[in-house]
Amino acid sequence: MFYRDAGQYKTTYQSDMAIFPLRQDRIGILVILALAYVAVPLMASDFILKTIMLPFLALVLAVVGLNILTGYTGLISLGTAGFMGVGAYACYKLTTLFPEVNILVWILVSGFFSAAIGVVFGLPSLRIKGLYLAVATLAAQFFLQWAFVRIPWLYNYNPSGAIEVPLRTVFGVPVTGPTAAIEVKYLIALTFVVVLTWVASNIVHGRIGRSWMAVRDMDIAAQLMGIKLLETKLLAFAVSSFYCGVSGALFVFIYLGGAEAGTEFGIRLSFIILFAVIIGGLGSMIGSFFGAGFIVALPTILKFGLPAIGIAITGAIAEKIVVMVIGALTIFLLIVEPHGLARLWQIAKQKLRVWPFPY
Amino acid sequence: MRAPSPTDIAAGEVILAVENVSLGFGGVKALTDVSFDIRKGEVRAIIGPNGAGKTSMLNCINGFYHPTEGRITFKGKTRPKMRPHEAAAGGIARTFQNVALFKGMSTLDNIMAGRTLKMKRGFFWHVLRYGPAMDEEIAHRRSVEEIIDFLEIQHIRKVPVGKLPYGLQKRVELGRALAMEPDVLLLDEPMAGMNLEEKEDMCRFILDVSNQYGTTIALIEHDMGVVMDLSDRVVVLEYGRKIADGTPDEVKRDQRVIDAYLGVGH
Known about the structure:
heterodimer; A: 359 residues; mainly alpha; two-stranded antiparallel ribbon; two-stranded antiparallel sheet; 14 helices; B: alpha/beta; 4-stranded antiparallel sheet; 10 strands
């Protein structure tokens, strides 16, 4: 009833090509941003911020990154956690080597290190596709994880083999390390997510995004449009890994506060992010948010939500159930709805548009 | 019916020349010593029974296959190992026998993808999607809308092409090729699987393209009525060899063509 596009005429191509062509959507996104920036830090408890919002914000960028590669360009990757690790370790090395530089700059720059590694491991993608590419990227995952453990230079020869996030301040306010306020961390992560999602959505709506989707849907015809396969695929790997790298840096610096070499960025995390992409919806920005939100919120809801309403459940059982639910849901969605939760969202919007009439 | 008369075409400059092209896959010879030329502005048909090597010929022209012998000269330049994207940059566009659209993308995005080569703005501006990148998008959107008007597909602008009926998909594919503003347009069975009405529409579009844009067209088609009406000159292939080349009337009377199509000694 309120969600109608009737009467909203587009008189320029620019307004027709806008990312949110509907007025209601534009208002909606502003409301969400306002809630995220003002209401959440004021009202949410430390517990919610720490167990849901921070991991969600850190992981959502990796999900966006993998969605660019898998959902938009059609290249499956199982190296996501490895590329996240590159971002985290690059950020750690950079900020310990040059502590005077703003940490926020280093978080962003660490994405470029990850992008470079991603391009190297993306090279085989010209020749191999599908499952075989997944195996090739699996090699990246294992190699990078090996490097994180075996190259002590990466964790500054720390005898425990872990990286500990040092205290860094921006304009005198601590943003990383144990003394940083959780609200500050939240706002920093949120800003990274908002800006980088805006950038990603700009890219996929333009020529570059069309080239990626063309390669995904029909690579032979894409070549005939003058799209160079190698460059396009490598660009997708670079952008995707950049997002994974920033995500990894945020994951360790903002969320975890420290990481054991090689345990955080294991194959398990790669799979979880791939499942988040599938559950959220392949080739959809909003789907990435749904997917990441689902993956992060589900364990917390099971662990703490069920006991709160009187169903006794232990943490160990909850963890097993999480794995089962995610696995079952992934298979279910792959068969029934490959466009995931994003597609359900679209259907809901369409229904809302004509409500209360059937069509 | 058509603007340039046959004598114009006969005197016209050769835009693409195929000289003694042979193509083999291991022991199989797809093409043997085929030569013909395509002149600027003409509609050139390539016909022949199934397996005659017509599609292989097109694949050689736009760089999917590299001829094992012979050479192809396009706009006066001979490239021994031309890649598909180089052919595209040179001005060769193509549609496929079994539609090769980008199924997950809308009609608009499919045709916009055809303009990729004409878009120059770099990554930085695309990150912002503002200023020059947006101006460029709008300029190309405008010319894409012209093509959409021309092909009368306004109503399916935002529909994912995977959901369109076959006849419309073929039309969108033609639109995508036209968006490249090619010098030579290769059409691989543009009317395959269509009903009479859709065929007539498609014929009209092909003739309009030829007349309005002056695009040179090479087409493969099995419907002889269409071929004879549309084309200025016809080349006939059989078992990878050229058996006839000339105006539709000449080809129709050629005994070897009649034998190839009707069989001998029945």
